[in-house]
C-alpha cells in the first residue's frame, strides 16, 4: 500500500475527521432531526484532540468526506493515521465512506473497516452471525418493506422489541416498542416500515440489566477493559428500553457492573466478538441479563462514542488510568496494525 512508517510520535500527524460545516453542533444554521445524535459533539471531539496533542501528535482537522476527497493527495502525504469520527452519508452504508477512501488511498485508519462498520450497523445480520459463532443472542426475526407483516402465535416468546435494523442511538425506539401480542407486532412493525423504509428487526425482549463492555486492541492483543451497567433515574434498566428521548436528554448514567462471574464472561465474549467481527482498534459490546441469569448480546458498536460521559469511557477507565492513556492505546493499536500491513 506504500504507507509511511513513522519512527516517533513527534514525526506523526493524525488526521481527525468529522463533520463541521454540516454539523448542527458546529453550525447553528444547519437543521437536522434524525441525524442529530449521529454527529460528533464538541465534548467528544475536543477531548480526543487534546489527548492527541498531549501525546505528542500534530492534529490535522478534516471536515468530513468532502474535505477528505478534495484534499486527498495532501492528506495522504501528511498524516500517518486517520482517526475516523465521520458520520458519512445515509442508509446502512452511511459510515463506510471514510474507511473505503482511506483503504483505496493507502491511508492507515483508526477504527473499523468499511465492512466492520456496515456489519455492526445491521442488527439482524449481527444477531444471526453471533448466533453462528455460539454467542447467546435473543431470538429475532426481520420484516421487509416489500412484504406484508405476518405474525403468528408461536413465532415469538413475548414480550418482544421492534426496532429499525440499520439505525443507531436508539432511533425508532420508544416506550411503545415493547410488544406483547402478534397484533401489536403487526401494527408497530407496519408503522416502522413506512417511517424508516428499511428492514425492521423484532427480537425477544431481554428483561434484565443492560451492560456495556469497552474493548481495545487487535488480535492477538485484544483486551476488554471493563463493564458498566446502564442506570436510568438512579435505577437499573431492567424491564425498560433505552429510547431516543433518553439519548437526547442524556438521561442514561453508568456504574460499574456487579456480578463477578457474569462480568468475566462478558469480557471474554466481547474480545471474541471484537476479533471475529473484525472491529479494529476499539469497540463497544452491549449485553442484557436474561431471566435465566444468562448474558445475551444485544448491540455491537465498532464506532463507539468517546465522550467522557459515554458508556465506553467509564468502562475503559476501570483498567486504564485516564482518558489520555485510553486514546494512546487506541491509536497505538491502529499504528501497530498499519505497520503490519493489516488494513482489512
| Percent of sequence in beta strands | 15-25%
- What is the helix tally? 11
Give the overall shape, derived from the CA principal axes.
globular
Strand count? 14
Stretches where pLDDT falls below 50 for ≥5 residues?
1-10, 30-36
Radius of gyration using CA atoms only: 20 Å
Helix content class: 25-40%
State the distance separating the first and last CA atoms.
12 Å
Largest sheet: 6 strands, antiparallel
Order of helices and strands: EHEHHEHEHHEEEHEEEEHEHEEHH
Structural class given helices, strands, pairing?
A: alpha+beta
Rounded average pLDDT: 89
Oligomer: single chain
Q: What's this entry about, in short?
A:
The protein is of the alpha+beta class. The chain is built from 11 helices and 14 strands.
Describe the structure.
The chain is an alpha+beta fold and 344 residues long. It contains eleven helices and 14 strands. Strands 9, 10, 11, 12, 13 and 14 form a six-stranded antiparallel sheet that branches. The protein has a four-stranded parallel sheet with strand order 2-1-3-4, sandwiched between helices. Strand 10 and strand 11 form a beta hairpin. Helix 1 packs across helix 11. The longest helix is centred in the C-terminal third of the chain and has 17 residues. 43% of the residues are buried.
Give the SSE map:
Elements: E1 13-18, H1 42-54, E2 58-63, H2 64-70, H3 72-78, E3 81-84, H4 97-105, E4 109-110, H5 114-121, H6 123-132, E5 140-143, E6 160-164, E7 178-179, H7 182-196, E8 200-204, E9 210-217, E10 223-232, E11 235-236, H8 244-249, E12 252-256, H9 260-276, E13 281-289, E14 295-301, H10 312-316, H11 323-339
Parallel strand pairs: 1-2, 1-3, 3-4
Antiparallel strand pairs: 5-8, 6-7, 6-8, 9-10, 9-13, 10-11, 10-12, 13-14
Helix pairs in contact: 1-11
Amino acid at each position: 500500500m506504500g504507507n509511511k512508517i513513522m519512527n516517533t510520535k513527534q514525526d506523526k500527524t493524525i488526521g481527525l475527521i468529522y463533520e463541521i460545516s454540516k454539523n448542527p453542533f458546529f453550525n447553528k444554521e444547519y437543521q437536522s432531526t434524525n441525524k442529530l445524535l449521529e454527529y460528533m459533539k464538541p465534548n467528544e471531539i475536543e477531548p480526543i484532540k487534546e489527548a492527541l496533542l498531549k501525546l505528542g501528535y500534530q492534529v490535522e482537522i478534516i471536515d468530513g468526506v468532502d474535505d477528505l476527497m478534495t484534499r486527498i493527495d495532501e492528506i495522504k502525504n501528511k498524516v500517518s493515521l486517520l482517526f475516523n469520527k465521520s458520520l458519512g452519508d445515509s442508509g446502512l452504508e452511511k459510515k463506510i465512506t471514510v474507511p473505503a477512501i482511506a483503504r483505496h488511498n493507502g491511508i492507515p485508519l483508526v477504527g473499523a473497516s468499511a465492512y466492520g462498520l456496515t456489519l455492526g450497523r445491521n442488527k439482524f445480520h449481527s444477531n444471526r452471525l453471533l448466533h453462528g459463532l455460539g454467542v447467546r443472542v435473543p431470538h429475532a426475526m426481520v420484516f421487509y418493506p416489500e412484504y406484508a407483516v405476518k405474525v403468528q402465535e408461536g413465532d415469538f416468546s413475548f414480550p418482544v422489541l421492534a426496532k429499525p435494523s440499520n439505525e443507531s442511538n436508539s432511533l425508532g425506539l420508544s416506550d411503545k416498542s415493547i410488544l406483547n401480542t402478534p397484533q401489536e407486532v403487526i401494527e408497530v412493525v407496519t408503522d416502522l416500515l413506512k417511517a424508516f423504509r428499511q428492514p425492521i428487526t423484532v427480537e425477544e425482549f431481554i428483561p434484565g440489566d443492560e451492560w456495556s463492555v469497552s474493548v481495545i486492541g487487535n488480535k492477538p492483543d485484544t483486551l476488554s477493559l471493563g463493564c458498566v451497567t446502564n442506570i436510568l433515574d438512579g435505577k437499573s434498566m431492567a424491564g425498560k428500553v433505552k429510547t431516543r428521548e433518553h439519548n437526547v436528554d442524556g438521561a442514561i448514567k453508568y456504574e460499574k457492573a456487579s456480578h463477578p462471574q457474569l462480568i468475566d464472561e462478558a469480557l471474554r465474549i466481547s474480545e471474541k466478538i471484537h476479533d471475529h467481527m473484525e472491529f479494529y482498534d476499539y469497540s463497544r459490546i452491549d449485553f442484557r441479563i436474561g431471566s435465566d441469569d444468562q448474558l445475551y448480546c444485544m448491540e455491537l458498536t465498532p464506532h463507539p462514542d468517546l465522550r467522557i460521559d459515554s458508556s465506553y469511557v467509564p468502562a475503559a477507565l476501570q483498567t486504564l488510568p485516564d482518558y489520555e492513556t485510553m486514546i494512546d492505546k487506541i491509536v497505538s493499536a491502529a499504528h501497530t496494525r498499519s505497520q503490519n500491513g493489516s488494513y482489512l
